[in-house]
Every structure is written in structure tokens, then in C-alpha cells.
Design a protein that fits this description.
Elements (H helix, E strand, L loop, with lengths): L8 H19 L6 H8 L3 H7 L3 H21 L8 H16 L3 H9 L6 H25 L1 H6 L4 H18 L8 H26 L5
Helix pairs in contact: 1-2, 1-4, 1-6, 4-5, 4-6, 4-7, 5-7, 5-10, 7-9, 9-10
Amino acid sequence: MARPIAKDHDAKRTAILKKAAGYFADHGYDRASVSQVARACGISKSLIYHYYNSKEQLLFDIIHSHLAQVHDAIATVSNHGEDPEVHLRHLVAELLMAYRGADAEHRLQLQSTTALSLHQQQDLATIQRAIVSIFADAILTIAPGYLNDQPTYLRPLTMSLFGMLNWFYLWYQPGRGLTRSTYADMATEILLGGLERLQKHEGAKKPTLA
């Protein structure tokens, strides 16, 4: 007969993920051992293995859970006929809010994914592509004519926006400097301004009819 799942199973798992993420991010995933993670979590090594059969599986669940939460957060930002630029602003703000309290998880996503198996990396990449697609679709609706004429520009524009937002977790300190919402507006303005200038530049290169 299978062992019943404890009522606090999910809560314990979530606590392990959060504390393990912090330990891996601070001490380096490669250098950290399961025993060290267990001590940092204030639990026994055997309890870690009750939830995860390897350090690799623990890392995968940390990043997978983080990405799934980010995706679910921005996927709820539906465009109900609002201005495309306003919709993009809402998406950017929601993404930065989803990053709140997840600096360690985000750092591991950017720095330690290659420690996982190819199959695990592909699973994570699927969620990442879905997140990128949501933003790419939003940017496309802002300048559909231009970006359909210049399809190779859409991905660089989208990833440039992510580059600005990924930088924020390295810089941000609560109570110092810009707030998340202010930086979200700034990053969006930079993207929109750059897109506008690209369109003007391309328009200026086109010959006019006599």
C-alpha cells in the first residue's frame, strides 16, 4: 500500500525549494552538497531525499517552479481591447512583480541551467519560449506593419527588453533607487522609443515617389 501524502507536503516542499535556492545562489550549485543544503534548510538529509532523489532534481524543480509561476502571472494579463502600448506596460510591470522575492531562483535560471540534463533543459526552455512569445506577440501588435516587413527585428527587440529586465534583479535594493513599477515604465519607454526610431529610420531610407 502506498504511503499517504502528508497534509503539509506541498508547504514543506515549497520551503525546501526557497531555502535551497538561496543556498545554491549564494554558495554555487556545483560546490553545494545535499548535506549542506539540508543544514541550511534546518532539516535532515534524508528528508531532502524524501522529496528529491538527487541534487539535480532539486535544482530542476527550483527553476521549473519559478518559471511556471512567472508564466502563470503574465498569462493572466489579458488584452481586453486596450492600447497595445498600455498592454505591454502591464506585462512588463507584472513580470517584474513576479520576480519579486525570487532573486535566487532567477539567478539560478540564468547561471545554473546548464548543470541539468538535456531533457530537463528542454522542459525549461519550453516554458521560457512561452514567456518570450507572450511579450513578442505584444510587441508585434504595437507595430505590426513594420515588424511584419522586418520579421528578423522582433526577436532582438523582445530579448533586448528581457535583457533590461534581467539586469534589474542584480541592481535592485528595496528602498533604494527606482521602484519596480518605475523601472518597468523606464524599460518599456526605452523599448518603445527604440522601436519608434527604427521605424522612422527605415521610413527615411525608402525613396519617395515623384
